Amino acid sequence: MRVKAVVAYDGNAYYGFQKQNNTSQTIASAIEKALHSLHIDSHIVASGRTDTGVHATGQIIHFDLPEFWKDLNKLKCELNKKLHGIRFKHIMHVSQKFHARFSAKKRLYRYVFKTDQPSVFEENYISFYPAFDKTLLQQALACFEGEHDFDYFRKTGTPTHTTVRKIYYARYRQHRRYHLIYFQANGFLRSQVRMMIDAAMDCASGALPIEALREQIACKKRHTTKLAPPNGLYLARITY
C-alpha cells in the first residue's frame, strides 16, 4: 500500500536529505528510523535531495505501508511525535505506480534574503546579501529561463544521465524588507540553485557582467562556482 507524504523540515539540524555512510544525522535517516519504530520497514523515496542547511516546506516522499496501518491521520501524528525539526504535513494513498522523484513534473525553490543583517532569530532561515540593483538581478534571472545545458552550474560527484534542464521561470520579488528569488524547473542538478542564485547576485552587484553569465550558461567559460548560503533556500513545491 503506497502512500505519498508532504514533509517540511528545518535543514539546520541535519547534514542534508540523503542518507550517508558516515552519519545518521540526515533527514532520510531520521524519517526511516521513525518509520521502523512503527514497524514500517519500507525505504523512503524523495522528489529530490537538499544540501546541508537547506530547508523544505513541500518536500514529497513516498513509501509503502503494511496492511495494518490504515489510519493515516494517526500515522502522521505518531511520526510527528518522534521527529524533531521534521514535520509530516499530509499523508495520502497513491497508486503503486506513483514515484516521488520520477513522477514529478515541476520543482519550485524559494530563496529568502535581506540586505541588512538578519536578526539572531532569522539567521538560520534567511540569507544576507548587500545592496544590489534590482533591474540587473531581474535581467540575470531571465538568462536562466528556458532549456539549457547547466553543466557549468553544478557540483560534480553525483552521476546524472544529462545536465540539460528546463527552467520555466526565474523571478525576483520583494516583500517589505525581505527579498525572494524563485526558480521553477523540471529538475535541478546538485547545488544548481545555489550556484545560479550567487551568480545572479554577482550580476546584481556589478561583480559579474551579464555577458559573462550568458557565457557560463552556454558552457563557453566558467566564471564563478560560488554557492549562495544554504540557510535562505527552501524546497517549496513539487508538481505532479
Report on the architecture of this protein.
23% of the residues lie in helices and 29% in strands. The protein has 240 residues and is α+β, with helices and mostly antiparallel strands. It is globular and about 60 Å long. The longest helix is centred in the C-terminal third of the chain and has 14 residues, at 192-205.
Report the sheet with the most strands, covering strand number, pairing sense and barrel closure: 10 strands, mixed
- Described by the principal axes of the CA atoms, the overall outline is globular
Kindly name the structural category: alpha+beta
Low-confidence stretches: none
Measured by DSSP, the beta-strand proportion falls in: 25-35%
Helix content class: 10-25%
Overall number of strands:
10
* CA-CA gap between termini: 19 Å
Q: Residue-averaged pLDDT, rounded?
A: 96
Give me the number of helical elements. Answer: 5
- What is the CA-atom radius of gyration, in angstroms? 19 Å
Write the H/E string, N to C. Answer: EHEEHEEEHEEEHHE
Key descriptive features of the protein:
23% helix; ten-stranded mixed beta sheet; single chain; alpha+beta; 10 strands
Quick recap of the structure?
This protein has 5 helices and 10 strands; from the N terminus they run E-H-E-E-H-E-E-E-H-E-E-E-H-H-E. The protein is an alpha+beta fold and 240 residues long.
